[in-house]
Amino acid sequence: MKNFGVYILESQKNNRYYIGSTDNIERRIVxxxxxxxxxxxxxxxxxxxxxxxxxxxxxxxxxxxxxxxxKRRDIxxxxxxxxxxxxxx
Length: 89
Prior knowledge:
It is a single chain. The N and C termini lie far apart (28 Å). By secondary structure, the chain is an alpha+beta fold. A three-stranded antiparallel β-sheet has the order 2-1-3, with helices on both faces. It is built from three helices and three strands, in the order ββαβαα.
């Protein structure tokens, strides 16, 4: 069974967050850490912070895009702490 959702990783190199969506979180974390993802290759290693489940990959991608519009670190840290999207409060 697929696990659709949005995830947040934190770079141990520069402490920045990366937001993505997937149907297999374990595989995706490995891909980021072995350098398969071009946009995160130079800021490895990555540490998993949160995974928020969605009903479909389409919903996950939509939520990923929406979450990426929130540029402020404090908002992302609240999402990590509460394990929910800001629009669900």
